[in-house]
Protein backbone atom coordinates (compact mmCIF):
# COMPACT_ATOMS: atom_id res chain seq x y z
CA UNK A 1 0.00 0.00 0.00
CA UNK A 2 1.19 3.52 -0.65
CA UNK A 3 2.34 5.62 2.27
CA UNK A 4 3.81 8.94 3.28
CA UNK A 5 7.10 9.36 5.09
CA UNK A 6 6.50 12.11 7.67
CA UNK A 7 9.00 13.56 10.15
CA UNK A 8 8.97 11.40 13.29
CA UNK A 9 8.00 14.29 15.57
CA UNK A 10 4.94 15.10 13.48
CA UNK A 11 3.73 11.52 13.55
CA UNK A 12 4.26 11.12 17.31
CA UNK A 13 3.69 14.68 18.61
CA UNK A 14 6.85 14.64 20.69
CA UNK A 15 10.61 14.95 20.41
CA UNK A 16 12.43 11.90 19.13
CA UNK A 17 14.92 10.08 21.31
CA UNK A 18 18.50 10.48 20.16
CA UNK A 19 19.61 7.82 17.73
CA UNK A 20 16.06 6.87 16.71
CA UNK A 21 14.62 7.08 13.22
CA UNK A 22 14.04 10.51 11.71
CA UNK A 23 10.97 9.43 9.72
CA UNK A 24 7.73 7.58 10.39
CA UNK A 25 5.18 6.04 8.02
CA UNK A 26 1.67 7.41 7.62
CA UNK A 27 -0.16 4.68 5.73
CA UNK A 28 -2.49 5.49 2.88
CA UNK A 29 -4.50 2.34 3.62
CA UNK A 30 -6.37 0.23 1.14
CA UNK A 31 -9.75 0.94 2.75
CA UNK A 32 -9.99 4.67 1.94
CA UNK A 33 -9.46 6.65 -1.23
CA UNK A 34 -9.13 10.29 -0.15
CA UNK A 35 -6.60 11.61 2.37
CA UNK A 36 -6.17 15.17 3.59
CA UNK A 37 -2.82 16.87 4.07
CA UNK A 38 -3.55 19.21 6.96
CA UNK A 39 -2.03 22.39 8.34
CA UNK A 40 -1.58 20.65 11.72
CA UNK A 41 2.03 19.42 12.16
CA UNK A 42 0.84 16.88 14.77
CA UNK A 43 -1.57 15.25 12.28
CA UNK A 44 -0.14 15.96 8.82
CA UNK A 45 -2.30 13.34 7.09
CA UNK A 46 -5.72 11.87 7.84
CA UNK A 47 -8.58 10.11 6.10
CA UNK A 48 -10.86 12.77 4.63
CA UNK A 49 -13.62 13.70 7.05
CA UNK A 50 -11.98 12.06 10.09
CA UNK A 51 -10.14 13.91 12.84
CA UNK A 52 -10.66 17.43 14.12
CA UNK A 53 -7.27 19.10 14.00
CA UNK A 54 -6.19 21.25 11.09
CA UNK A 55 -7.86 22.14 7.88
CA UNK A 56 -6.94 20.50 4.59
CA UNK A 57 -4.14 22.10 2.61
CA UNK A 58 -4.39 19.42 -0.10
CA UNK A 59 -5.95 16.05 -0.81
CA UNK A 60 -4.31 12.86 -1.98
CA UNK A 61 -6.80 10.83 -3.98
CA UNK A 62 -6.44 7.20 -5.04
CA UNK A 63 -7.74 6.34 -8.49
CA UNK A 64 -8.13 2.58 -8.72
CA UNK A 65 -6.93 1.04 -11.94
CA UNK A 66 -6.90 -2.59 -13.02
CA UNK A 67 -3.15 -3.17 -12.75
CA UNK A 68 -2.15 -0.52 -10.21
CA UNK A 69 -3.42 2.53 -8.38
CA UNK A 70 -2.73 6.11 -9.41
CA UNK A 71 -2.36 8.72 -6.66
CA UNK A 72 -3.25 12.34 -7.36
CA UNK A 73 -2.42 15.40 -5.27
CA UNK A 74 -5.06 18.16 -5.48
CA UNK A 75 -5.07 21.58 -3.86
CA UNK A 76 -6.57 25.05 -4.28
CA UNK A 77 -3.72 26.35 -2.10
CA UNK A 78 -1.15 26.21 -4.91
CA UNK A 79 1.09 28.85 -3.30
CA UNK A 80 1.33 26.80 -0.06
CA UNK A 81 2.43 23.49 -1.57
CA UNK A 82 5.29 22.27 -3.76
CA UNK A 83 6.16 18.89 -5.25
CA UNK A 84 9.86 18.23 -5.82
CA UNK A 85 10.48 21.96 -5.39
CA UNK A 86 8.01 22.99 -8.08
CA UNK A 87 4.67 24.74 -7.55
CA UNK A 88 1.50 22.75 -7.99
CA UNK A 89 0.50 23.85 -11.51
CA UNK A 90 -3.28 24.05 -12.00
CA UNK A 91 -3.73 22.61 -8.51
CA UNK A 92 -3.17 18.98 -9.52
CA UNK A 93 -0.30 16.50 -9.86
CA UNK A 94 -0.01 12.75 -10.38
CA UNK A 95 2.32 11.52 -7.64
CA UNK A 96 5.22 9.20 -8.31
CA UNK A 97 7.29 7.09 -5.96
CA UNK A 98 9.64 9.19 -3.79
CA UNK A 99 8.03 12.55 -4.62
CA UNK A 100 8.75 15.22 -2.03
CA UNK A 101 5.68 17.20 -0.94
CA UNK A 102 6.49 20.43 0.85
CA UNK A 103 3.97 22.58 2.72
CA UNK A 104 4.67 25.62 4.87
CA UNK A 105 2.95 24.07 7.87
CA UNK A 106 4.18 20.48 7.89
CA UNK A 107 7.48 20.76 6.05
CA UNK A 108 8.84 17.88 3.97
CA UNK A 109 6.77 14.75 3.41
CA UNK A 110 7.67 11.99 0.96
CA UNK A 111 5.18 9.91 -1.02
CA UNK A 112 6.07 6.26 -1.63
CA UNK A 113 4.40 3.43 -3.49
CA UNK A 114 6.80 0.81 -2.15
CA UNK A 115 4.98 -2.10 -0.55
CA UNK A 116 6.23 -4.68 1.88
CA UNK A 117 5.46 -8.30 0.99
CA UNK A 118 2.71 -9.91 3.07
CA UNK A 119 1.06 -13.30 3.26
CA UNK A 120 -2.64 -13.22 2.37
CA UNK A 121 -5.31 -15.45 0.85
CA UNK A 122 -5.12 -15.51 -2.94
CA UNK A 123 -8.20 -13.63 -4.21
CA UNK A 124 -8.57 -15.89 -7.22
CA UNK A 125 -8.98 -15.23 -10.92
CA UNK A 126 -11.07 -16.68 -13.73
CA UNK A 127 -8.02 -18.37 -15.25
CA UNK A 128 -5.71 -20.70 -13.30
CA UNK A 129 -2.75 -18.80 -11.87
CA UNK A 130 0.61 -20.57 -11.95
CA UNK A 131 3.23 -20.00 -9.28
CA UNK A 132 6.44 -18.95 -11.07
CA UNK A 133 8.61 -20.84 -8.55
CA UNK A 134 7.02 -24.33 -8.44
CA UNK A 135 4.88 -24.01 -11.61
CA UNK A 136 1.88 -25.39 -9.67
CA UNK A 137 -1.52 -23.68 -9.62
CA UNK A 138 -2.42 -21.17 -6.92
CA UNK A 139 -6.05 -21.68 -5.93
CA UNK A 140 -8.49 -19.13 -4.53
CA UNK A 141 -8.05 -18.73 -0.76
CA UNK A 142 -4.57 -20.31 -0.61
CA UNK A 143 -2.00 -18.45 1.46
CA UNK A 144 0.14 -16.55 -1.01
CA UNK A 145 2.30 -13.48 -1.47
CA UNK A 146 1.92 -10.93 -4.24
CA UNK A 147 5.33 -9.51 -5.13
CA UNK A 148 5.17 -5.79 -4.34
CA UNK A 149 7.35 -4.96 -7.33
CA UNK A 150 6.30 -7.19 -10.26
CA UNK A 151 2.84 -8.00 -8.78
CA UNK A 152 3.16 -11.76 -9.42
CA UNK A 153 1.57 -14.24 -6.99
CA UNK A 154 3.56 -17.02 -5.24
CA UNK A 155 2.54 -19.85 -2.89
CA UNK A 156 3.40 -19.19 0.76
CA UNK A 157 1.68 -21.95 2.71
CA UNK A 158 3.37 -23.62 5.69
CA UNK A 159 4.07 -26.68 3.49
CA UNK A 160 4.94 -24.74 0.32
CA UNK A 161 7.01 -21.57 0.79
CA UNK A 162 7.61 -20.62 -2.80
CA UNK A 163 7.84 -16.88 -2.09
CA UNK A 164 10.47 -17.24 0.63
CA UNK A 165 12.38 -20.07 -1.09
CA UNK A 166 15.27 -17.74 -2.02
CA UNK A 167 16.25 -14.22 -0.99
CA UNK A 168 14.77 -12.55 -4.11
CA UNK A 169 11.62 -12.84 -6.20
CA UNK A 170 11.92 -15.33 -9.07
CA UNK A 171 11.02 -12.62 -11.59
CA UNK A 172 12.53 -9.38 -10.24
CA UNK A 173 14.95 -8.08 -7.60
CA UNK A 174 12.36 -7.67 -4.79
CA UNK A 175 13.60 -9.08 -1.47
CA UNK A 176 11.45 -11.93 -0.17
CA UNK A 177 11.95 -11.53 3.59
CA UNK A 178 8.54 -10.92 5.14
CA UNK A 179 10.10 -8.96 7.99
CA UNK A 180 12.24 -6.85 5.64
CA UNK A 181 12.22 -3.09 5.97
CA UNK A 182 11.51 -0.77 3.10
CA UNK A 183 14.33 -0.51 0.58
CA UNK A 184 14.14 3.28 0.46
CA UNK A 185 13.66 5.79 3.27
CA UNK A 186 14.18 9.57 3.32
CA UNK A 187 16.93 9.04 5.92
CA UNK A 188 19.33 8.34 3.03
CA UNK A 189 18.90 11.89 1.71
| Average of per-residue pLDDT values | 83
Helix fraction by DSSP (H/I, runs of at least 4): under 10%
Shape-level CATH architecture of the largest domain: Sandwich
Q: What low-confidence regions span 5 or more consecutive residues with pLDDT below 50?
A: 10-16
The top-level CATH class of the largest domain is: Mainly Beta
State the order of secondary-structure elements, H for helix, E for strand.
Answer: EHEEEEEEEEEEEEEEE
Q: What strand order characterises the main sheet?
A: 2-1-11-10-7-8
Do you know the CATH topology of the largest domain? Tumour Suppressor Smad4
Taken as a percent bin, the fraction of beta residues is: 25-35%
The best one-word shape is elongated
- The structural class is mainly beta
Radius of gyration from the alpha-carbon trace, in angstroms:
19 Å
Largest sheet: 6 strands, antiparallel
Number of strands: 16
N→C terminal distance = 22 Å
Question: How many discrete domains?
Answer: 2
Number of helices: 1
Question: What does this 3D model show about the protein?
Answer:
The chain is mostly beta strands. The chain has two domains: 3-112, Tumour Suppressor Smad4; 115-189. The protein has one helix and 16 strands. It has one helix spanning 8-12, and strands at residues 3-7, 23-27, 34-38, 45-47, 56-64, 69-74, 81-83, 86-87, 92-94, 100-103, 107-112, 119-121, 129-130, 137-138, 143-146, 153-155. The strands form four sheets. A six-stranded antiparallel beta sheet has the order 2-1-11-10-7-8. A five-stranded antiparallel beta sheet has the order 4-3-5-6-9, with no helix packed on it. The protein starts with a strand and ends in a 34-residue tail after the last strand. Residues 10-16 have low confidence and may be disordered.
